[in-house]
Write a structure and sequence with these properties.
With 542 residues, this protein is α/β, with parallel strands linked by helices. Helices cover 37% and strands 7% of the residues. It is built from 17 helices and eleven strands. The strands form three sheets. The protein has a seven-stranded mixed β-sheet with strand order 1-8-7-2-5-3-4, with helices on one face. A two-stranded parallel ribbon has the order 6-9.
Length: 542
């Protein structure tokens, strides 16, 4: 039997479809890396492997107890209060949910007689502003097209005569700000020279931010690849010699960091501008910083942007662009303040890593803004958006401070969204909690003691229900005794390639996505005498 063909040992052979022979072999590094922190991992395995099978004789007719059974029936794995104890995983705690929503626009609704009266009065002005906006946008677009015409060598800095043409676009950008109601902009401090700080970072509150910096600094910016296809905007940012990055691609992020370093190290290029939060917030908090601006190790000038307001929150949080533009056009004046902070330099001894460098810069920006810092990230906005799309009550409760989750559990943004879809399919109640029947139904778990123990392990508050934060901060589906239909469902679960065959890659891929399946194998390991109670070593067993 081929060692890498893992279809047969996963389930008893007499309960699987007709398959070619094979063995289930679990590779240590592939299996444990997503589950345990590095300080809990054992030393390198000596290469021993164990073939895992599933006991087909366990009692599958056990009555379902919704109050969590505490059996003493002799099954070793049912006697474990923590079903993941055999992996060396201890109990966990879930931080209290934060009440802060960094993406909430606080004036989504038009409230008050004053605000309605102002909108009615400003409607004719809004129409004029819209026409002027389109006019100046067209001027800037045409000037940019002229500046880019015939330019092929994008790897080198833009020639000076082309940069002079771009002044038309920069002046048009200032008039665009005027049409949005920013008749004057208060500045504090001054931008330092490029030689002192080739990189500039700023908090990100609105789409107004990059328009202002384009006019003020004409920098090279770092932007998402999706921006290139935006009408008008894509053309203009190409003239800024934008550094594109795909936030979901490690190779793209690495290339972007190398490009930041290349352009920041040459005085021939403009300074580089980044918004390290990676998305817009409401300006009332500073969320976690991405490290792209800090890895190159150049001095950085932080800049803060504020939008003081009473009746209209100008932040581009969880609000559509069209709605935000309408509210801006119907204001008498919109306030904006920009403050240039002292340069933050990397240490001379180079012992400080990029994380600490980013933390010092983030602290400087948060202190100047007088706001708190959180571990939210763009991933939380993805979760918020997904919950809103599915019409869930209070979608902000499904944010989990993804920067912390990703750091501790190595769960990426896309994986978290898939995880949320699975959680929401469990029909959470109005408080965002899931009860055990829906938990078992969606994860295809049989109503038995082991399933209840898995649920109880996640239910850290011991109130018979779990939240998305609890589920996300734990591990992930398990299945004890299966009937024939359930065997086929489980086989489909492991058949990742949909080719009617479960090989090693399918098996390990499924376990990474569904590590709650791991307790299923604990009884086999114990019965073979390969694992003692409380033994946290994986080296001898996997």
């Amino acid at each position: 039997m081929a060692e890498n063909d893992l279809g047969s040992p996963l389930l008893p052979s007499d309960r699987l479809r007709n398959q070619s022979n094979g063995k289930a072999v679990v590779a240590e590094d592939d299996l444990i890396s997503p589950l345990l922190p590095s300080d809990r991992l054992p030393s390198q395995s000596n290469g021993e492997q164990v073939i895992l099978t599933i006991d087909d004789q366990l009692n599958s007719d056990r009555p379902f107890n919704n109050h969590f059974l505490n059996d003493n029936d002799g099954d070793a794995h049912l006697q474990i209060h923590n079903p993941f104890e055999f992996l060396g995983a201890g109990s966990f705690t879930v931080p209290a949910p934060t009440t802060i929503d960094p993406f909430r626009n606080h004036t989504l609704r038009i409230e008050g007689i004053y605000e309605w009266l102002k909108i009615v009065i400003c409607l004719p002005i809004a129409l004029l502003r819209l026409l002027l906006f389109l006019l100046f946008l067209s001027f800037g677009f045409l000037a940019t097209k002229v500046a880019l015409y015939g330019w092929r060598d994008k790897h080198n800095p833009m020639p000076k005569w082309r940069c002079r043409i771009m002044w038309i676009t920069r002046i048009s950008a200032r008039f665009i700000l005027f049409t949005f109601g920013y008749h004057w902009i208060k500045r504090k401090g001054r931008p330092t020279s490029r030689q002192n700080a080739p990189i500039v970072v700023s908090n990100h509150v609105s789409y107004i931010d990059p328009i202002f910096f384009f006019y003020e600094l004409f920098p090279t910016i770092v932007a998402s690849e999706s921006h290139d296809s935006l009408p008008f905007v894509g053309t203009i940012i190409r003239a800024m010699q934008v550094i594109y990055v795909n936030r979901f691609s490690p190779s793209s992020r690495k290339l972007a960091v190398n490009e930041i370093k290349r352009k920041a190290s040459s005085d021939r290029f403009p300074r580089v501008l980044l918004f390290p939060e990676g998305t817009t917030t409401n300006g009332r908090v500073v969320i976690s910083f991405q490290l792209g601006a800090f890895i190159p190790g150049f001095p950085i000038q932080p800049v803060i942007v504020r939008y003081p307001h009473v009746h209209f929150d100008q932040s581009w949080g969880h609000i559509s662009v069209g709605r935000l533009m309408f509210r801006m056009f119907t204001q008498f004046h919109n306030f904006m303040e920009v403050e240039y902070l002292p340069v933050v330099s990397p240490p001379d001894d180079q012992k400080e890593n990029a994380v600490n460098f980013a933390e010092r810069t983030s602290n400087a920006i948060a202190s100047a803004l007088n706001v708190v810092q959180t571990c939210h990230s763009y991933g939380d906005l993805m979760l918020l958006t997904r919950a809103s799309q599915l019409k869930k009550d209070q979608p902000s409760r499904y944010m989990v401070e993804m920067a912390r989750v990703e750091s501790l559990f190595h769960i990426g943004n896309l994986e978290a969204v898939d995880f949320l879809d699975k959680f929401l399919s469990m029909n959470p109640d109005s408080s965002g909690c899931v009860h055990i029947p829906d938990f078992l139904r969606v994860l295809r778990l049989k109503a038995c003691s082991l399933s209840e123990k898995i649920f109880e392990f996640l239910d850290v508050e011991k109130n018979g229900k779990i939240t998305f934060r609890q589920l996300g901060d734990s591990v992930r589906p398990a299945i004890p005794n299966l009937n024939e239909d359930e065997v086929n469902e489980m086989y489909d679960l492991f058949d990742v390639g949909n080719d009617g065959r479960v090989d090693k890659e399918d098996f390990l891929s499924c376990l990474r996505k569904n590590p709650l399946l791991i307790p299923l194998f604990s009884s086999v390991l114990r019965r073979e005498g390969l694992l003692e109670d409380g033994d946290s070593s994986l080296e001898e067993t996997l």
